[in-house]
Design goal:
Number of domains: 2
Strand content: 15-25%
Shape: elongated
Order of helices and strands: EEHHEHEEHHEEHEEHEHEHEHHHHHHHHH
Helix content: 40-55%
Distance between the termini: 24 Å
Number of strands: 12
Radius of gyration: 33 Å
């Protein structure tokens, strides 16, 4: 076959039709013809599985991080303006001023406190994080109201001092054996009565008006929403909320908006944001994702190293062909490019297949999780493979980050080309005389 000629004096162009056809011929060669098809298949499968595993792990970690932050920023505020040093008459004007800051889409007074929750099934008590909130503000928390599994908010905040209806998480309800309409007893030492024998806690029984399941074990197990007026009475706040909670258009803008909020207040005041409150947790998620990427990327390189074995054996089997082509005028560069294309084709096709399988896994994570749970349940009935209390979430999330997938694919392409350079260079250095001496 005549090579493509750009200039008769210079020979074939790099990666010409001649070189591409020869590379494809070697790639498809059967073992009887001197090819190494088994090692080629192993190399292809290895790269496919390595890229697929990396995308699966990173997609799940990205999904976990996104889901946790979505719940965290949806169930709580983004900036907290503390009011403990203010007079009661100063709080409402302050709330109105900070609510006008650009980027703030809501400001509400809230009370927060800890209590021990008890029921006949759990008389020893369980930590409860109580949020006193106005009914209208609670109705605007879509991450909570959209996850109500039983009951409703119709009676929330209705009655003397806000009534006695509360909203609890599904894990707490399950642990205490509670349903909508059942009673839950809360004990708080905040504001309790001092006696010669110590502080006598405040004890009160509330009616479960609704049960929510956000899908995050910590929130579902410990969060209780109570009418603001009732929380004020229970914790003896004397009409003064603990803080003004601001919700932002973009939660990650909280650090930049703290100064404008401080300026809008008009006087020195303590301000905090959700990133400061959860900095260690958010940082841990980011570090975990970065370290996992660093750990798994070399797996792709290790899988790509199989290409070297296949190329070395192919070059050994095709030594006579290489020598003949060299004596017919093929350059060293041409032979090197041929074997680079052979190895790179295996790696690039494997990377493409790995990316496709990894993305499909992320898109169909729910059916995959259900299938794995079904298979696992056949051998161990009644056991949860993805326990919410162990993993924090009720469902295994996955998020396809196309930028990260592009980086993974690019690394796969790069690794597939790099590992071919040395064996291809060795093939180009083959001496035709030595190769044909005993032919």
């Amino acid at each position: 076959m005549k090579p493509e000629i750009d200039n008769p004096g210079r020979g074939a162009l790099p990666f010409s039709l001649f070189e591409r056809l020869l590379a494809m011929r070697y790639l498809r060669a059967k073992r009887a013809e001197g090819g190494v098809s088994l090692i080629t298949v192993i190399s292809f499968v290895g790269i496919t599985l390595a890229v697929k595993a990396l995308i699966m792990v990173m997609s799940v970690m990205n999904g976990y991080r996104a889901k946790i932050i979505e719940i965290m920023t949806g169930a709580q505020g983004h900036i907290f303006v503390y009011t403990s040093q203010l007079e009661i008459e100063e709080i409402e004007p302050l709330r109105k001023r900070v609510s006008l800051v650009p980027g703030v889409n809501g400001a509400r007074a809230m009370i927060f406190g800890n209590a021990a929750a008890m029921s006949p099934l759990a008389p020893s008590g369980e930590l409860a994080l109580i949020f006193g909130i106005e009914p209208e503000a609670l109705a605007s928390l879509g991450v909570v109201t959209s996850k109500i599994t039983s009951g409703n908010l119709g009676e929330f905040g209705v009655g003397h001092h806000g009534g006695n209806q509360i909203l609890i998480g599904a894990s707490m309800a399950r642990k205490f054996g509670l349903m909508v309409g059942d009673d839950l007893t809360l004990l708080s030492f905040s504001g309790g009565t001092m006696t010669p024998f110590g502080t006598r806690p405040i004890r009160k029984t509330y009616r479960v008006g609704a049960i929510f399941q956000m899908g995050f074990a910590d929130f579902d197990q410990h969060f209780i929403y109570m009418p603001l007026s009732q929380a004020d009475l229970f914790f003896k706040k004397s009409g003064k909320p603990d803080f003004i909670e601001l919700r932002l258009d973009e939660p990650f803008d909280a650090p930049e908006l703290k100064q404008p909020v401080h300026d809008a207040a008009g006087f020195p005041i303590l301000i905090d944001d959700w990133l400061d409150k959860n900095r260690s947790f958010v940082s841990a998620l980011q570090i975990e994702r970065t370290m996992m990427r660093m750990i798994l990327l070399p797996v792709v390189l290790i899988a790509a190293l199989n290409i070297i074995s296949g190329l070395v054996m192919l070059i050994k089997n095709k030594g006579r062909d290489i020598a003949i082509l060299r004596t017919m005028g093929a350059s060293k560069g041409a032979m090197m490019r041929v074997f680079i294309m052979v190895g790179a084709t295996i790696g690039i096709l494997g990377t493409i297949c790995g990316v496709s399988l990894g993305v499909l896994f992320a898109w169909y994570i729910d059916p995959v999780q259900d299938f794995v749970q079904w298979v696992f349940g056949m051998f161990s009935p009644g056991t949860l493979l993805f326990d919410e209390e162990v993993y924090g979430l009720a469902r295994l999330p996955a998020l396809v980050d196309w930028t990260e997938i592009f980086i993974i694919a690019l690394f796969g392409f790069f690794a597939s080309i790099v590992v071919t350079l040395y064996p291809s260079w060795r093939a180009s250095r083959l001496d035709p005389v030595e190769a044909l001496r005993y032919e």
